[in-house]
Design brief:
The relative contact order is 0.12. The radius of gyration is 17 Å and the shape is elongated. It is mostly helical and 103 residues long.
Length: 103
């Protein structure tokens, strides 16, 4: 089974903080809509860029939180079991870190 096709029987590491993530994503959606409105209303470029920077930071906080949860739960659990699943989870986490660093 590929890491992205896990069944719902496995509880993801973020599940205990799901409501926190959903609230934060709701605020992020509002920020994105606000930026669209600023562009539509032809606001000052620097003000829009400032809001984009804030939005980017908010997304990074969510991404780092999810990564931390993934490492503490999914990767740690797989590492305890060992074998191919452990190696796959570690590679998956490394790939995710690489994507975050590039972004």
């Amino acid at each position: 089974m590929s890491p992205s096709s896990e069944t719902s029987t496995h509880a993801h590491g973020y599940i205990s903080d799901k409501d926190k993530y959903l609230k934060r994503m709701g605020r992020i959606e509002g920020q994105a809509r606000g930026i669209s409105k600023m562009i539509d209303e032809e606001k000052y470029c620097i003000d829009i860029l400032t809001q984009i920077s804030a939005l980017t930071s908010a997304l990074q906080v969510v991404a780092l939180g999810l990564l931390d949860d993934h490492l503490k739960h999914c990767v740690l659990d797989a590492a305890k079991l060992g074998g191919d699943d452990a190696a796959a989870k570690i590679k998956e986490a490394s790939d995710a870190i690489s994507r975050l660093v590039r972004s």
